[in-house]
Design a protein that fits this description.
The protein is an alpha/beta fold. It is built from 26 helices and 9 strands. The chain has a 9-stranded mixed beta sheet, with helices on both faces. α1 runs antiparallel to α2, α14 packs antiparallel against α21 and α16 packs antiparallel against α18.
C-alpha cells in the first residue's frame, strides 16, 4: 500500500498558518490591494506545492518535515495519551474530561466525516444509524518497524472495540481490518440498544484505532437528532437524543463539533440550537459544513460566507468545509484514500469554493489537524482544575471509605462490638444533657429539642386559663354554679365545694397537654436514638435492626412509667391544698388592685354600720363587738351586689390558687418526663443494651435496678458477634466501589503529577496566534446573531 494522503502534512499545515498570519498582519498594516493580491497568490502557490507533496522530494524539506513531525509527536501526543489513559482508568465517571463531541441532525453526514478522519467505515443508512454513543480513539503510529497484520502484507492497522452490557461484564473484540468495524459496531449497538432503531442513552461503545493514517485524536460520536419517530422507534426518540446530547455538550470541558449540511438552512439546524444553549458565547463550538457538491449554484455564496465566519452565525473556532464519499462513491467501492484525493481536487478546481481552499478552510485533513490542536489546547487549559478536582475527590472518597470502615478481624469482633455499643450509649447520654463533642453529636441536639418542647408546654398551659377579657363569661359560670349548689352556708361564706369543683377543673385542663408533651418528647428521643444508631451501626444490618428494637423496647417501658407517674401527679392535685407563702400575699394584692379599680370607676361602696350590729351586753361594757369590723353584714342572700361580691371573691381566690398549681405542674411534669425518657433511658442504653448482647457484662452491674429485666432476651435468638457484625451486600458493594474509586483517583493523581504542567506545543501557539483577532471579534459580537 502506498503512502496514504491521510498522513497529515505537518509542514504544509505550518506553512498555511504562517500564510494566514501573514495575510492578517498585512491587512492590519494597511498595505495596498496589489501587495495583498501578490501575497495571496504567492502564498497560495506555496500552499499548493506543499499540500500536493506529502513526502517532499527535496532532502532538506523531508528532514524538516520529519523533525516537525517528531516535535509534534513529542509535545502533542502526550496530551492526548494522558486523557485517554485517564479515561481508560474510568476517571470520566468521577470528573469531566476534555473531549470532542460530534453532534448533528439525522443524515447530515456525521458518519462520513468520521470515516474520512479515522479511515474506517462506520454504519451508514438513510435513517438513524448511530444508536449509541461511540468513543473513537485514534492513535497515529509509525509504520516503519511494525509488523503487518493483514493477509496482503498491508501497512500496520489495529483496532479494538469494547463495551459493557447492562448488568454484564465487559466485552472486547480485536479487529484486523478497517472493513470489520461497521459490523462490529452494529452488533454492539444491537446488544446495548436492542435490535431495531431505538437508541441507548446509558452505555458507550469504545473503538481504539492505531494506524499511520489516523490523527492523534479522540472523538465521541452521538446519535443524530431525529425530529420525527420512524417505524420501530419510540415516540419520544427526539427527546431521548437531545437529552443524551445535552449530557455531553453541557460540560465546559467539551469541544462541540457541530456537523451541518450545506443543503439545509443553518438557522433551523437543531444541532446548532443545542450548541448555542450549551455554549452561549460560542467559544468551544466548531462547525463542519458537509455536502457542498449538492448545493444549488445560487446558494454557494452563502456557504462561502458561513465558512469564512463572517455571517450572522459566527463561531470562535470557525468552520471547515468538507466533501466526503457519497452513496454512489460507496457503491462504486471508492476507497477512503481516493475520496480524500477527490476532495482536494474538488475544492481546488471549484469556481466558488476554491477561495476557501486557498484560505485553508476546506478538507478533512485540515479538520483533523484543527480538532487535534483544539483538543490539546483544551486539555492544556483544563489541567490545573483537573488536578485540583482529582485531589479533592480523592480526599473526599478516602474519608467516606474510612467512615464506612474496614472489615473487622474475627478475633477482634467481640471487643469491637462492645466498644461501639458503649460509644452509642455514651453519645445518647451526652445528647441528653447537651454535651455535644463532635459533628455527629451536634447534628442530634436532643437536650435543645426537649427544652423547646418544655417551653411550648408552658405556653400552651397558660393559654388555657381565662384572662381579663374572659372574666365576665367566667363570672357568670361561677355565679351559676354557686346558685345551683347553695347550701347552709351563711352570707359571705361561699361554698368550698364550688371552689374545689373549679380548682379540679383547672387541674384537669393541664392533663391533656402534659400527656401530649410526654408523647412529643418520646418521639424526639426516638428520632435521635435511631439517628445515632444509624451513624454507629449502619454498616451492620442485623446489629442495627436489633439495636433499634431494643431502643424501642426501653423507650416504651420508660414512657409507660412516666405516664403512670404523671397520672398519679394529677390525682394528687385533686387534693386542694397549698402552703405557698405567696398565695395570701398575692390574694391581698389582687384585692387591693381590684378595689383601686372599683374606686377609680366610681363603684366603691360606702360601708355603713347599722345599730343592730352593736352588741350591748354586760360583758362588753358598751364596746362594739369585734365582729362589727366585718362589714357589710348581709341580711338577705338575694342582694345582687352581695352575690356579685362573693362571685368576684371566689374568682380571685381561684385564679391565685390556679397560678400556684400551674407553676408547680409546669415544673413537675417536665422533670418527670426528663427523668424517665432521658436519664433512665440513657442508663438503659448504656447498661441494659450491653447485657442484652453480652450477658457476661451483667456481672459488672451493681444492682438489679440498674438494668432491665432480660427475660424477653431469652425468647430472642442469640447471635454471635460475627453474625451481628455481618455487613449487608450493598455495604460490601459500596466499600468495593469506594476502594476502586480511591485507587482510580490515586492512579490518576500520579499520572497528572508526573505529566507536569508547563507543556505547550508550537502547533497550539500558531493556532492561537492565527485566530486571536477572530476571537476578539466574535466574543465581542452580538450573541443574538447566533
Amino acid at each position: 500500500m502506498s503512502a496514504c494522503p491521510c498522513v497529515f502534512p505537518f509542514f504544509s499545515d505550518i506553512l498555511r498558518s504562517r500564510m494566514r498570519l501573514g495575510k492578517k498582519k498585512s491587512k492590519k498594516s494597511g498595505k495596498s490591494a496589489i501587495n495583498e493580491k501578490t501575497t495571496k497568490d504567492s502564498s497560495a502557490t506555496a500552499l499548493e506545492n506543499a499540500s500536493e507533496s506529502v513526502a517532499p522530494s527535496h532532502p532538506s524539506r523531508a528532514s524538516s518535515q520529519t523533525a516537525m513531525s517528531e516535535q509534534f509527536d513529542r509535545q502533542v501526543r502526550p496530551f492526548i495519551d494522558l486523557i485517554d489513559s485517564l479515561r481508560s482508568l474510568g476517571l470520566d465517571e468521577d470528573v469531566n474530561l476534555p473531549s470532542v463531541v460530534v453532534i448533528g441532525d439525522q443524515s447530515t453526514g456525521k458518519s462520513s466525516v468520521l470515516e474520512a478522519i479515522s479511515a474506517v467505515q462506520l454504519p451508514r443508512g438513510s435513517e438513524i444509524v448511530t444508536r449509541c454513543a461511540l468513543e473513537l480513539r485514534m492513535k497515529n503510529v509509525k509504520a516503519n518497524g511494525l509488523c503487518t497484520n493483514s493477509d496482503d502484507g498491508g501497512d500496520y492497522w489495529r483496532a479494538t472495540l469494547s463495551y459493557t452490557p447492562p448488568l454484564g461484564k465487559k466485552i472486547s473484540h480485536d479487529l484486523k481490518k478497517p472493513e470489520e468495524v461497521s459490523k462490529a459496531v452494529e452488533e454492539a449497538q444491537n446488544v446495548l440498544a436492542g435490535k431495531g432503531k431505538n437508541i441507548c442513552t446509558d452505555s458507550i461503545i469504545r473503538l481504539e484505532v492505531e494506524s499511520p493514517y489516523v490523527p492523534d485524536l479522540t472523538l465521541i460520536d452521538l446519535p443524530g437528532i431525529a425530529r420525527v419517530a420512524g417505524e420501530g422507534q419510540k415516540e419520544d426518540i427526539e427527546e431521548q437524543t437531545k437529552s443524551l446530547i445535552k449530557q455531553y455538550i453541557e460540560k465546559e470541558e467539551t469541544i462541540i463539533l457541530c456537523v451541518i449540511p450545506c443543503t439545509s438552512d443553518i438557522a433551523t439546524t437543531e444541532a446548532l440550537k443545542l450548541a448555542k444553549q450549551a455554549d452561549p458565547r460560542r467559544q468551544r463550538t466548531l462547525g463542519v459544513m458537509t455536502k457542498p457538491d449538492l448545493v444549488d449554484p445560487g446558494s454557494q455564496k452563502n456557504v462561502v460566507t458561513t465558512v469564512q465566519n463572517v455571517s450572522a452565525f459566527k463561531l470562535r473556532l470557525g468552520y471547515t468545509l468538507v466533501k466526503c464519499r457519497g452513496q454512489k462513491d460507496i457503491d462504486d467501492n471508492m476507497s477512503l484514500q481516493k475520496a480524500i484525493e477527490e476532495e482536494k481536487r474538488f475544492f481546488k478546481n471549484h469556481k466558488t469554493y476554491k477561495s476557501l481552499y486557498r484560505d485553508g478552510l476546506t478538507g478533512t485533513e485540515r479538520l483533523a489537524k484543527q480538532l487535534t490542536r483544539q483538543l490539546v489546547t483544551q486539555i492544556h487549559n483544563c489541567l490545573p482544575n483537573l488536578r485540583q478536582r482529582v485531589s479533592q475527590l480523592e480526599t473526599k472518597t478516602t474519608t467516606e471509605l474510612e467512615r464506612l470502615g474496614t472489615a473487622i478481624p474475627r478475633l477482634q469482633q467481640k471487643s469491637y462490638l462492645l466498644e461501639i455499643l458503649q460509644k452509642y450509649g455514651n453519645t445518647i447520654e451526652r445528647a441528653g444533657v447537651g454535651d455535644y463533642r463532635d459533628d455527629i453529636e451536634k447534628k442530634y441536639k436532643l437536650y435543645a429539642t426537649v427544652h423547646e418542647h418544655f417551653t411550648a408546654f408552658q405556653a400552651r398551659v397558660n393559654s388555657l386559663f381565662p384572662g381579663e377579657r374572659d372574666e365576665d363569661r367566667y363570672l357568670k359560670k361561677i355565679e351559676k354554679e354557686m346558685s345551683e349548689s347553695r347550701g347552709q352556708e351563711l352570707p359571705g361564706f361561699p361554698s368550698f365545694g364550688v371552689f374545689r369543683t373549679f380548682a379540679i377543673d383547672h387541674v384537669n385542663k393541664i392533663k391533656h397537654p402534659a400527656i401530649q408533651l410526654l408523647n412529643d418528647v418520646r418521639e424526639s428521643v426516638k428520632k435521635v436514638a435511631f439517628g445515632l444508631a444509624c451513624e454507629h451501626f449502619d454498616r451492620f444490618t442485623e446489629l442495627h435492626t436489633r439495636v433499634e428494637s431494643k431502643t424501642t423496647e426501653y423507650l416504651s417501658k420508660r414512657h409507660k412509667e412516666a405516664k403512670m407517674d404523671i397520672e398519679s401527679t394529677f390525682k394528687k392535685e385533686k387534693f386542694i391544698f397549698t402552703q405557698d407563702k405567696n398565695f395570701k400575699g398575692l390574694l391581698h394584692q389582687a384585692r387591693a388592685e381590684n378595689a383601686a379599680r372599683d374606686a377609680e370607676a366610681g363603684r366603691a361602696e360606702v360601708v355603713h354600720q347599722p345599730q343592730s350590729s352593736v352588741v350591748h351586753s354586760t360583758f362588753n361594757f358598751g364596746f362594739k363587738s369585734p365582729m362589727a369590723k366585718l362589714a357589710p353584714v348581709a341580711t338577705s342572700t338575694t342582694d345582687p351586689e352581695e352575690e356579685d361580691t362573693e362571685v368576684k371573691e371566689l374568682l380571685l381566690k381561684l385564679r391565685q390558687y390556679s397560678n400556684v398549681v400551674r407553676a408547680i405542674l409546669c415544673d413537675t411534669i417536665p422533670k418527670t418526663i426528663y427523668f424517665y425518657l432521658i436519664t433512665l433511658f440513657s442508663e438503659d442504653v448504656k447498661i441494659s443494651l450491653l447485657t442484652s448482647f453480652d450477658p457476661q457484662t451483667e456481672a459488672t452491674v451493681e444492682t438489679e435496678d440498674e438494668y432491665l429485666d432480660s427475660s424477653s432476651d431469652d425468647e430472642e435468638e442469640t447471635l454471635t458477634p460475627q453474625e451481628l457484625l455481618r455487613e449487608s451486600s450493598d455495604k460490601e458493594e459500596n466499600r468495593r466501589m469506594l476502594t476502586t474509586k480511591v485507587e482510580r483517583l490515586r492512579k490518576a493523581e500520579r499520572k497528572l503529577r508526573r505529566f507536569g504542567g508547563s507543556e505547550t506545543t508550537p502547533a497550539i501557539e500558531l493556532e492561537e496566534e492565527n485566530v486571536e483577532s477572530e476571537e476578539e471579534e466574535i466574543i465581542n459580537g452580538d450573541d443574538d446573531d447566533y
